[in-house]
Amino acid sequence: MGALQPPFRPPRRILMGPGPSDVSPRVLLAMARPTIGHLDPAFLALMDEIAEKLRVVFGSANEFTLPISGTGSAGMETALINLLEPGDTAIIGVNGVFGGRMAEVAQRAGARVITVEAEWGKPLDVDALVTTHRRHPDARLLGVVHAETSTGVLQPLDELGGYLNETETLFLVDAVTSLGGVPVEVDARRIDVAYSGTQKCLSVPPGLAPLTLSARAMERVRSRATKVQSWYLDLSLIGAYWGGERAYHHTAPINALYGLHEGLCAVLEEGVEARYERHSSLGVRLQESLEKRGLELLVEREYRLPQLTSIRVPAGVNDREFRRELLERYGIEIGGGLGPLAGQVWRVGLMGATCRSESVALFLSALDELLEGM
Amino acid sequence: MGALQPPFRPPRRILMGPGPSDVSPRVLLAMARPTIGHLDPAFLALMDEIAEKLRVVFGSANEFTLPISGTGSAGMETALINLLEPGDTAIIGVNGVFGGRMAEVAQRAGARVITVEAEWGKPLDVDALVTTHRRHPDARLLGVVHAETSTGVLQPLDELGGYLNETETLFLVDAVTSLGGVPVEVDARRIDVAYSGTQKCLSVPPGLAPLTLSARAMERVRSRATKVQSWYLDLSLIGAYWGGERAYHHTAPINALYGLHEGLCAVLEEGVEARYERHSSLGVRLQESLEKRGLELLVEREYRLPQLTSIRVPAGVNDREFRRELLERYGIEIGGGLGPLAGQVWRVGLMGATCRSESVALFLSALDELLEGM
Questions:
Q1: Distance (Å, rounded) from C-alpha B360 to C-alpha B350?
Q2: Is the pTM of this model over 0.95?
Q3: B interface test, pick of A1, A4, A5, A80 with most B CB neighbours within 10 Å
Q4: How close is the nearest chain B Cα to the Cα of A194, in Å?
Q5: Cβ-based contacts of B262 with chain A (< 8 Å)
């Protein structure tokens, strides 16, 4: 007999950072249901249900729609390495950490990466992207981040999707922080590939990456001349397990998928339109309340994500001390700035289950109290 | 308001296949604890505890010991792609599906792969591995599967570890099905790299891959001339989050890690020696009972895994029908054969929480009843 091991007791938190967001008890409890086998007929039926619900949330009829067994970054990597072969050109918009990560992952896949940059906190210039594409019409894909988690910028997609759909270039969209919070509308916007994470506006714990590919993107995967560099993230192999053949690839993360299923049930019960409206109205309420207090927001009104607000750290306030006090005294977690914005901004999330009027009220009250004392 | 979505109700099962194994209620409930942030001080402390407990189970003082955010196959891929650079030689022992998978992953990493094969159901010949290594002394690594999940073979490791430790070649061991069921003893056996999965003898749901690297393996990772092909599985980046710097890489799968922590608590409370003894004695009980019934086992006594037994499907018995009946009438899941053993064997697991005398008794009883009727 070994010694008794103390269990982990998570402190009480309200997750108002850039993700993970609060997870509702129904999702937490779903993950505690008994584990069954990854080839059990009941589990295979659950997989079909998950794919079907993901299609609704993505706004797509894409057959190839499934969650990758890894976090959002694994979704990004899966999308890029399956679509790119060494020597391919990829045009990547970079206006924050996650655009930069896309460029890095595409480079590791052997692609020639052309970046189109914008200042952090501003959207990418669609004309600049189109002009760059005209110079590189053979580009295999053009990728942008829909909701830049490092800044809080919402990228307009409609024009780009319409333009690229008339070309040979695939339109790839990072929807990690957008899915379930603002409309992604994969089919209407002519998006060929979109991936997300579970721990943002879906309010499911991190660990899975919903992914959807259009028929023309799948055609590209099937016509590769070289093997995908990763075996674990090879979509042909993963598709054979999720698709008709049910061929064993890797053991699916069963209980995490229980959680995703329950989280998607909650999204569909609320209704996606009602969910967007909730995020929109509470996001605006928070943002207006912050501006009324004289705080400066990083992003212009037109491009602000409702679910993630970047506030400039007020002059004279110590960033780390403020966030530590907020966590220790109020149990509120928010995010700091990344890269060039480190120490410059606070990132306040209102995603999924966190997005409720009590969160807004509590945060504003805590903010007032803390700033008064600093 | 959308329509009410029916929740998933997993059927009652006893998981006696090749994994996942039964998960105890204490682990299931641990996963339902509230999600906190991946940079929360309380979570960072939990990560340290998980690493420390993994060291005990691996039998290693290796500083670099952590769970990869993916299933066991992601652990395999992480180990191989971080240690191999294009053009490197890798010697891989293949006597089942997972040795074959290692060879495939190493090839995708650009390595020149030399395989040493053995019949499925037999261990690899250590002399053949050593002879092959003497012909390729510049090999970057030599990899074998400790517990071949596709056959139930236990591979002897001691001699190989001692031999390779005197060379420049790293010793890589797949411990997916062995960890927590039979001694892995990374340090005593001079293993440089070992990876595992959570859903076998640790009895935690699938989704994480414990991994440990020796100092000389880490030195190899640090002295790479090229970037690792995967950003998600790049150990330098992952190590910066799990190690001292706590630099954000990807969002850790928080609740899955709660489950792993609780599962490791259960292992340490039982004591690793007591756990090995439990697996050993019940495995032998099952195997002897099967032989008494005249059933033929695939693997010779000396190389049998206690936690996974391959039974030859008796002549005249329909493999699929038997397994379906076992599942539907008794709720017992066992595995079928893979590759050349498809339709030829049943794989019966007694791993972790499944490994109890009731499982053995129930399986034998169900087997008797079903075979009588066939």
A1: 8
A2: yes
A3: A5
A4: 18
A5: 7-8
Contacts of A105 in chain B (CB under 8 A): 231
B199: nearest CA partner in chain A: A251
Among A58, A133, A59, which residue's Cα sits nearest to residue A93? A133
Q: Mean pLDDT of successive 10-residue segments in chain B (374 residues)?
A: 92 98 98 97 97 98 98 98 98 98 98 98 98 98 98 98 98 98 98 98 98 98 97 96 88 97 98 98 98 98 98 97 98 97 98 98 98 90
* B319 touches B313 (CB < 8 A): yes
Reduced 3-state DSSP string for chain A: CCCCCCCCCCCCCEECCCCCCCCCHHHHHHHCCCCCCCCCHHHHHHHHHHHHHHHHHHCCCCCEEEEECCCHHHHHHHHHHHHCCCCCEEEEEECCHHHHHHHHHHHHCCCEEEEEECCCCCCCCHHHHHHHHHHCCCCCEEEEECEECCCCEECCCHHHHHHHHCCCCEEEEECCCCCCCCCCCCCCCCCCEEECCCCCCCCCCCCCEEEEECHHHHHHHHCCCCCCCCCCCCHHHHHHHHCCCCCCCCCCCHHHHHHHHHHHHHHHHHCHHHHHHHHHHHHHHHHHHHHHCCCCECCCHHHEECCEEEEECCCCCCHHHHHHHHHHHHCEECEECCHHHCCCEEEEECCHHHCCHHHHHHHHHHHHHHHHCC
> Is the ipTM reported for this complex over the cut 0.90?
yes
Distance from CA of B291 to the nearest CA of A (A): 27
Domains annotated for chain A, with CATH where assigned, are 14-18+272-372 (3.90.1150.10), 25-268 (3.40.640.10)
Q: Where are the beta strands (DSSP E) in B265-350?
A: 308-312, 332-333, 335-336, 345-349
- What was the pLDDT predicted at B117? 98
Reference B191, options B210, B168, B209, B217; nearest CA is B217
How far is CA B227 from each of CA A5, B67, B83, B86, B105, rounded to the nearest angstrom?
40, 21, 11, 11, 17
Residue position matching structure tokens 């595992």: B196
* Residues of chain A contacting B228 with CB distance shorter than 8 Å: 108
Which residues in chain A are contacts of B259 at CB distance < 8 A? 255
Closest residue in chain B to residue A22, using alpha carbons only = B35
Sheet holding B335-336, edge to edge: B308-312, B345-349, B335-336
Chain B environment of A254 (Cβ under 8 Å)? 20, 199, 205-207
Average pLDDT score over chain A = 97
CB B41 within 8 A of CB B167: no
CB contact under 8 A, A269 and B3: yes
